[in-house]
Amino acid sequence: MTVSGLAVMPDGRVLVYDGRDARIKILSGGDLAPVKEFGRKGQGPGELTVSPFHGFGAKAAVENLAAVGDSLIYIHDSRKVEIYDFDGASRGAIHDVSSGIFPPFTTRYIQAHGAELLVVSDSLDRTGARPRRFQTWAVRQDGSRRLVIELPLPAPPVVGGSVFTPAMQARPL
User: Which backbone phi and psi does 88 adopt, to 5 degrees?
Assistant: First the structure.
């Protein structure tokens, strides 16, 4: 199991997103006993796509790709945000949340905020026109989005024209 997301539901239960196996597990709030499990790999409605880059840079990456709102669960897979109700039924998806971002620079964190989903991305412009940056987007279920804040970050080292980030290398945030 690879924990790719963790959230606390309004009733105190704990949601764990297993990104490697594309499963959502709900645990009781007290003893963390399994209550429910749902989700599966695939590219259809309600299915989760596991990134071919899953696990690369896992030691250096900090991410939380699960969020819980008042009545919905949001899970970011490698292509979209899948939306489920608390019973595990699919309620749609938000596509192109990470548009224009390439691994290992990708979505790092999501958080439900009213009718919007806050999506924090670590991004790098391949053309070099813009520096590496953290961006926070407010995304609505219809896919519309607005940039909330953008913070420039130092670019990683480039070796032979490719971004090079050795495992366990200390980097300023």
Answer: 95, 5
One-letter amino acid of 170: A
Tokens of 60: 């250096």
- Please compute, for residue 167, the number of CA atoms within 13 A of its CA located in the half-sphere on the CB side: 5
Spatial CA neighbour of 106 closest among 44, 38, 58, 143: 58
| pTM (2 d.p.) | 0.79
Closest to 68 measured CA to CA, from 32, 26, 106, 21: 26
- Domain spans of the chain, in order of start: 58-163
| Burial degree of 44 (CB within 10 A; 0-12, 13-18, 19+) | exposed
pLDDT of residue 58: 46
C-alpha span between 92 and 83 (Å, rounded): 5
